Amino acid sequence: MEYGVQFFPDVKPEEKSAARYFEECLNIAEQAESLGFTHGRMVEHYFHYYGGYSPNPLLFLASLAQRTRKMRLITGALLPVFSNPLKMAGEIAMVDALSNGRVDIGFARAFLPHEFRRFGISPNESVRRFREGIRQIDLLLREDVVNDKGEFLTIENTTSLPRPTQTPRPKFYVAALNTPESFEYAGQNGFSIMAIPIAGGRMRELTKIYRDAWRAAGHPGDGEVMLAFHMYCEPDGDQARATAKPFIEGYFHSLVDAASDWLSGTSSDDYPGYANIMNKLKATNMENQIEGKSAWIGSPQELRETVAGLFDEFGPFEHASLQIGFNMLPYDKAIASMNLFAKEVMPFRPKHG
Known about the structure:
By secondary structure, the protein is of the alpha/beta class.
């Protein structure tokens, strides 16, 4: 299993400027590479302090490409539902060139109703727009000349420039949370998957669906899974939990606030069960996140014990994507936590089961 760092801004302008936020993220990622972390990942969201500082993760990754030399640069994830595939394909290939072929592209359907409302797009079109967008971006990156008639976009005799640095194109990930069909779709199409294990969820079952679909489609190997976790480490476990508690619970409060439409009557066949998911997250706290291994918070020894049981909890996975600086966790504490984790926890690996 490899470790990487991910960034999900949960910041209000009056709390921290965008310039300061991104400089801290770039510093964390640059240092992470020197400590052996193998990827840096940035999200795409809009308009709300939960995620809204990053409307285009490719811009962040282009900057990170100049500060690093080895780590993979991952979108976690792009939202085709809100963007034109013609534009996205060109921007992906541009960052692929700027990074000398180190970019990997995660795609997601989006899940915040306020974003759909403000872009004037129905969440009931989410799956169709998502799958058409990925298919057309794939065509534009793989093929020199593309002709494709989609439901939402028709492409005629088009060559996307620049051409990708990686051949035939950068690796694709699909972000999934709770819908078995999303995991099956990723496996059938030979895409890697990025997911978030929710405390009390069924990630082991869902990753099995993904790997079964991968093998059934005849793809070589067994697929590739990336799971995301919050992480905070101090020498004393009780102090680590006392430090992290207001910030991790603040993060989940922000998430529920951004997604509150699911709790006030918004529904969509493309998002079954999301009201239940948000109710669970509304009731979550640091303690049940730690108990479910969704958050790694404690001393190095406690985190080694957490890592040792990961595959039993979630099934085997290839990448742990760690949110080092969540909510308004102070920058110096995030850096110290990352260094301690790299020194005393990263050398340990979960056992395959």
